[in-house]
Amino acid sequence: MLISKERTKELKEFQKKYNLKFKDISLLNQAFIHTSYTNENNIDVASSYEKLEFLGDAVLKLAISKFLFENFPQYQEGQMTKLRGEIVSDKSIFEFAKKLGFEELIILGKNEKKHGGAKKESILACAFEALLGAIFLEYKEKGYKKAYEFLIDNFKNEILNVNENISFLNPKAILQEYTQSIDKKLPNYILIKEEGKEHDKTFYVEVEYQNQIIGKGNAKSIKQAQISAAYNAILELGLIENEEKCKQ
Fold first, then answer.
1. Global model pTM greater than 0.85
2. Cα gap 109→102, rounded to integer Å
3. Quick one: which of 21, 90, 184, 196 is 20 to 30 A from 9 by CA?
4. Which candidate in 53, 112, 129, 206 is catalytic?
């Protein structure tokens, strides 16, 4: 597929903005080609983003799994699986794609474009996965590392927000309910220290009740460190036996 000078310029600006360097500009362009375009123009469907999407889906899941494993030590396997499912859902990565300006970059057939394809959740979510697949291929042996860095550099806050908004686990509420049932007092969360560079800090928190430390935790945000401390506290107190009892 021939790429116009205008399109090349557009893709170069995109790369510069998000710290990407594609030697094969056609590979990057392919990540934005919807099948409606290839169908309308009698182009081989292999030129669309479908195969890149297949690869990118695997890259996305592996990268998010790694991030959750390293940043949420308080979660068990089942909890991380559920959280990953929320993060890699079309709903979430559609928002990622919009943040990167995919609505302007996606290439659609005339009919799909007419019917608002540039704003469709499924189309932009698939294109986002295709971009990860393209990054993986372009950077060869460093492909996974680059895809992971791209994700975390641009969407770390969004990933953390998904975790904060999910309701399958609320150890702070469990602990609060327990302490209030005893003397109507709340547990006290104390920030003990923080380590690391400004953009990549780890926070250490202790939770105190009746002048005793009942739990400790650490994470990449103060809120998550508090959750970690509360989780460890309710485990120590015997308030939960498995993850099912942590559900709201």
1. no
2. 15
3. 90
4. 129
